[in-house]
Amino acid sequence: MTLKIISAEQIEFEGTVDAVTLPGVMGQFQVLKNHAALIAALKAGRMSYVADGSTVERDIHGGVADVKDNVVSVCLY
User: Fold this and answer.
1) What is the CA radius of gyration of the chain?
2) Of the chain's two ends, which shows fewer C-beta atoms within 10 Å, N or C?
3) Residues 6+ apart with CB under 8 A from 74
4) Distances (CA, A) of 30 to 8, 9, 10, 23, 45
């Protein structure tokens, strides 16, 4: 699936990933291939994704995640 991490200034990352873990306001959740469509508010915390067998982690301050048709768009505050 494709992950897009977008800030107000730029697209920070766009690439193929195997999994994305996000800090939702209702709790942490993971998105895998063929996940159901959803829109979720994100809180401050740590997000991570797995790409090419490596896990990348980063802190975020909040935002919104949109999942549809194997594309995960994370818009950060």
Assistant:
1) 11
2) C
3) 3, 4, 5, 6, 20, 22, 42, 47, 60, 63, 64, 65
4) 24, 26, 24, 9, 14
Exposure b/e, 32-47, CB count within 10 A at least 16 = b? eeebeeeebebeeeeb
At position 76, the amino acid (one-letter code) is L
Q: Give the whole-angstrom CA distance, residue 27 versus residue 12.
A: 24
pLDDT, tens only, 3-32: 999 999 999 999 999 999 999 999 999 999
Please state the pTM of the whole predicted model: 0.94
pLDDT band at 2 (very low <50, low <70, confident <90, very high): very high
